[in-house]
Amino acid sequence: MAEVLNIESLDLEARGIARRDGKVVFVEGALPTERVTAQTVRRKPSYEIARVEDILRPAALRVAPRCPHFGVCGGCAMQHLEPSAQVAIKQRALEDTFWHVGKLRPQRVLPPLHGPTWGYRYRARLSVRVVPKKGGVLVGFHERKSSYVADMRECHVLPAHVSDMLMPLRAMIAAMSAPDRMPQIEVALGEGVTVLVLRHLEPLTEHDLEVLRAFAAEHGVQWWLQPKGPDTVHPLDPAHADALCYTMPEFGPRMPYRPTDFTQVNHAINRAMVSRALMLLDVQPQDRVADLFCGLGNFTLPLATRAREAVGIEGSKALTDRALAAAERHGLEGRTSFATLNLFEVDVDWLRGLGHFDRMLIDPPREGAQAVAQALAQLAPRERPVRIVYVSCNPATLARDAAIMAHEGGYVLKSAGVINMFPHTGHVESIAVFESLPADEVLAIQAQASLKGQEAA
User: Fold this and answer.
1) Which string of DSSP letters, residue by residue, matches 4-20?
2) 92-115+266-293+343-456 belongs to which homologous superfamily?
3) pTM score, two decimals?
4) EC number(s) (predicted)?
């Protein structure tokens, strides 16, 4: 039975939040300030999930979704909300997470980093399925909260020329020898280059290769093939092995990469993010800087153009090898060094052994950098102050690590703000700045933390 609900706020899955007799009701399709009728579809002891049936009072910030597949395709969650309002909700979510997880508030809220809201997604993983009931081959993202592939005929967060290839890709796969054994196509765009990586579970025939070459010639793309795991990825044409790259004109580096390497999906925002990170670090020519979880050197090489020394550390040797090669290509090998290490298992002795860093940049995956945060807290107090910029793709792990650094190591959360890397999605990218306190204040904080720990025991 439908009921009338008033929507108070929005979660990061773009569900409206209402309350009924103290119980939270998540309402799919509703926005803050709206009055709606909704039907409950799932009941739990502490919450319910409902779907909108009718909007009695629409929100002023509601807009018509641009994509006809919105609501079915799981690629986007917020197309019905004006883009600046999406960013405001993400900023609020970041601040709320800092408080709820770590009892912290940034001293200053940074202005959000904006970029293009359409055609921004330069990396994507498209699933391929043969579904006779839907006309044959489907190529696209999964349906929302489903393992089924959406019947996508266009996609507005992909660059237009990639969106235009969705239907031709269906026809191409259908023309190959084993279309049901080709589960995935990855998209990776570089400077003037579009790479498609075909995952195939059976060896390709000569006919298959001819089909791929014809498609590449017609659509101006380069094919890479992946017969097994990521290490087996290789270009169909060996001449294309080094064609994929992105640039950062402000700092000079041209960053080559393989299509399965981790790179940011939004190149415009990545450039702005690197620029902001270096501005917030305020790197000086005499500084020694650490870049933890450095990947391909996305931050390390720009840092090396400003600092005396930039030290990049990453868990993948393939990535650090490519980062070193890029540094050598740009004449930065004398100001950079790279090491391969599992940063999820480090401790304070390791960190102490690296020597003093004036600045540090941390850019971990979604799991965060808990071991690094604990090592930093145990290393404090330092003889000289240090500034840390932490780039995060998960507010919860950022807040957890911030709490460790602040409450156990005496670091101050100076500022934080969101980076709108993924418009129209619930994904929250953010950046935060920490600074170490004077030694006497740190010792007082650590003594208080130790006392609380003893009382708890």
Assistant:
1) EEE--EE-TTSEEEEEE
2) Vaccinia Virus protein VP39 (3.40.50.150)
3) 0.92
4) 2.1.1.190
